[in-house]
Write a structure and sequence with these properties.
Length: 322
């Protein structure tokens, strides 16, 4: 038993070590707003949706819990950060932490709803929760702005020094740094004994229960952490755009992030990031060529991806993350 435990610990330690190509990739990513200043705004958008995809990957890829209402946490974090900046304090970092805290609390409450039932039940329940928040944001127009959205959100400089500029370089750098910090934390967590325990529950919940693992508690924890990450993405979205609207709760948001994971793959952290980049770039490029039929071409790409296989189609682009 001790030999087996030692082997597992050595495997986790090996997996947690950073490779040189990972560090080089992140160095390139973090300097992207300054290397490509004319594309800083889209870099910011990609960083935010990548963080959102990372949060869903924790739930779907590592805990094995399907969710069609993950936009609930994105929207809750966005509105919380926007209201905090508008009425209390316009500091971006403090607002980010407040948005994360609010979504963490919401995730802890909502986690109680996904512990029972089948995957279909969870799909409907999570979707219903997002729709409830959407309707609440619409009805509480005195607070949220209703269908007009929450406007006039002015942010102070990041860390009191870096003003948000029109080119979006500060916003993109800010979002990328937050993405990197949270990615490092999540990467450390999934390669820890707790992360291995969660994957054991995903693979065989009955066997995990038989050796004394409390599956419900671990799944609730993962769901809560994922909610915090989604809340951070929402807070970044509201802070860097100065606006929060009802469509952030829409089904489209949850469906799009699910497509990102289909493209990039679930159960490995770079899958969500790669899927977010691919989806966003395809969306922008195709919609600029054919605005009416861009969904057709993305759908065709997904069909080819399924028929050919992700490993064969994306292997030249993903070898470095394996």
């Amino acid at each position: 038993m001790s030999t087996h435990m030692s082997s597992m610990q050595s495997q986790l330690l090996k997996a947690s070590r950073w490779q040189w190509h990972e560090l080089a990739l992140w160095a390139l990513v973090l300097t992207a707003p300054w290397l490509l200043p004319s594309h800083a705004l889209i870099v910011n958008e990609v960083a935010i949706v990548a963080l959102f995809a990372l949060s869903l990957d924790l739930v779907l890829g590592y805990a094995g819990v399907v969710s069609l209402g993950h936009a609930a946490f994105l929207g809750f974090g966005a509105y919380t950060a926007a209201l905090f900046a508008k009425h209390i304090l316009p500091d971006p970092v403090v607002g980010l932490l407040v948005g994360m805290a609010a979504s963490t609390l919401l995730g802890a409450v909502f986690s109680l709803t996904i512990l029972r039932g089948t995957d279909l039940t969870r799909l409907m329940v999570t979707l219903g929760l997002a729709l409830i928040l959407l309707e609440l944001a619409n009805k509480l127009d005195w607070l949220t702005g209703g269908s007009d959205g929450l406007q006039g959100v002015l942010m102070g400089p990041v860390l009191g020094r870096f003003e948000f500029d029109l080119m979006g370089q500060t916003a993109a750098t800010y979002s990328l740094v937050v993405l990197f910090v949270l990615f490092v934390a999540v990467r450390h967590w999934v390669h820890s004994p707790l992360g291995a325990t969660v994957k054991a529950i995903r693979d065989n919940r009955l066997r995990a229960a038989a050796i004394g693992i409390n599956g419900n508690a671990k799944i609730a924890l993962v769901y809560t952490v994922a909610a915090a990450l989604a809340g951070a993405a929402g807070a970044l979205m509201a802070q860097t755009t100065g606006f929060a609207s009802l469509d952030i709760f829409a089904l489209d948001r949850s469906a799009d992030v699910m497509l990102m994971l289909v493209i990039g793959g679930v159960g490995w952290l770079y899958g969500g990031l790669l899927g977010a980049v691919a989806f966003k770039l395809m969306h922008d490029v195709i919609s600029s060529i054919t605005p009416q039929y861009w969904t057709f071409w993305i759908g065709l790409f997904l069909v080819v991806l399924v028929l050919v296989g992700r490993d064969k189609l994306l292997k030249p682009w993903t070898w470095w993350a394996k």
